[in-house]
Design a protein that fits this description.
The chain is an alpha+beta fold and about 425 residues long. The protein is built from 14 helices and 14 strands. Helices cover about 55% and strands about 15% of the residues. A hairpin with a 2-residue loop joins strand 9 and strand 10. The protein is elongated.
């Protein structure tokens, strides 16, 4: 019986008709007040959706990248060590890879990188273009987000046999081959040497380019690159990836010390080995966008608050105008809860109507912008669709804003005494 009474009160049409009559008693005033809430919710939703969309777009560009990764480049020494003067040039070597793999079980991948310079133009038939050439191993494909379009990636046999094979980027395919033509098994002349194409790759993200645009590169086994450069077993750059439960910052320091000691470099010489910790870079991005989203919420809620204050002020005026009415209700036995519920209901309904209108209008505008952006050949914005969770949060904020707006007017209404109200003119 108690639950049935609650349901009847919840859907009491007379109560809602009274609220509606109170709101529409002064239409222009109510509309102007509602517009403040409407605009506050509209700006909040648009700003949150924009901030969230940009954050998702940028962080989405990092999908597939092995974030627990560090890159190490040898550089000139800045400290003397064991008879060697400072300023000495040194290199990481192929046998260092084996030693590191044996010494550090917490490393998931170890990948050498070679930069091949001045190799000449890549030529096939009558078509010729100049591209970068880089040397990799099989693990590089696991650390960097690439998609196989044709064929395969470099494997361990290519590395062991120093094969003259290459994997080309998608732009190289489009430049040197006819549309729909398969590149696998064909020959490309680079300088005075010929390379068999074993695969075609395309990058899956525009947000990360470790060593340049992959789509415009020729990728060869790193041992082949060493032979092209006539550099023996020297390695230009070393990439290491730790397992997810391992802190890469701690591992990279120990690996750096280990490599320096193997190559007679002072372990304390920080300038001798340049480190790029990708996890720190990605964490910085996360903090940046976390701060951006926090700022967006602060600004948006501030805009909404100005509208809520307007509702509260108008409700105070309404309570003042209805002093006699409230006094009569109190004299007829209306409880403080009844008066409180009436004033709070009016505030929540007015705020909710304006807030929902702002929410719907914001979603409509975002959808239109989304469609227009999606029609562009190279979209300059990520998807701005409001996540369902944020829509729920917005609804909760609207309801709480209505309750906040009605708090002071409700206290003012409860302070009205029946005798004084009946004497008020």
């Amino acid at each position: 019986m108690h639950y049935e009474l609650c349901i009847v009160r919840m859907f009491d049409l007379d109560n809602y008709q009274e609220i509606w009559q109170t709101i529409t008693r002064n239409k222009s005033r109510s509309l102007l007040t509602a517009f403040g809430v409407f605009w506050g919710v509209f700006m909040l939703v648009v700003m949150v959706a924009l901030g969230s969309g940009i954050s998702r777009g940028i962080m989405g560009q990092l999908d597939g990248v092995a974030q627990n990764t560090s890159m190490l480049w040898p550089s000139n020494t800045s400290m003397p060590y064991k008879g060697f003067k400072k300023g000495r040039s040194w290199n990481i070597h192929s046998d260092d890879l084996v030693a590191i793999e044996r010494e550090f079980a917490e490393l998931k991948y170890i990948s050498p990188v070679m930069f091949v310079d001045n190799v000449g133009k890549a030529t096939r038939g009558t078509k010729s273009e100049e591209y970068r050439m880089m040397g990799h191993d099989a693990n590089y494909f696991k650390m960097y987000p690439l998609k196989i379009v044709q064929g395969r990636w470099i494997n361990d046999i290519d590395i062991r046999d120093v094969r003259k094979v290459c994997v080309i980027g998608e732009k190289v395919l489009n430049d040197l081959y006819k549309p729909g033509e398969s590149a696998v098994g064909t020959l490309i002349r680079v300088g005075s040497s010929y390379y068999t194409v074993i695969g075609v790759v395309k990058k899956t993200t525009d947000g990360v380019n470790f060593f340049g645009n992959t789509d415009e590169m020729l990728h060869v086994p790193y041992t082949t690159a060493q032979r092209i450069q006539n550099s023996g077993d020297k390695i230009d750059c070393l990439c290491i990836t730790a397992y997810d439960d391992v802190e890469i910052s701690e591992v990279e320091t120990r690996v750096a010390t280990f490599v320096k000691e193997r190559n007679l470099v002072n372990p304390d010489d920080e300038a001798a080995l340049v480190l790029l910790n990708l996890k720190k870079v990605f964490d910085s991005f996360s903090m940046l966008f976390g701060g951006l989203n926090f700022l967006v919420w602060i600004v948006g809620l501030g805009t909404l608050l100005s509208g809520v204050i307007g509702v509260s002020n108008i409700m105070l005026v309404t309570v003042r105008e209805r002093t006699q009415e409230i006094g009569i209700r109190r004299a007829l036995g209306a409880t403080p809860f009844t008066i409180l519920k009436q004033i709070m209901s009016e505030s929540v309904v007015l705020t909710a109507m304006a807030g929902l209108a702002g929410l719907v209008f914001a979603v409509l505008i975002l959808s239109v912008v989304d469609v227009v952006v999606a029609m562009q050949p190279d979209p300059f914005l990520p998807s701005l669709q409001l996540p369902f969770s944020l829509a729920i949060v917005a609804l909760v904020v609207i309801i709480l804003a209505g309750m906040f707006a009605g708090y002071l007017p409700s206290k003012r209404a409860l302070s009205i005494k029946a005798v004084e109200a009946l004497q008020d003119e």
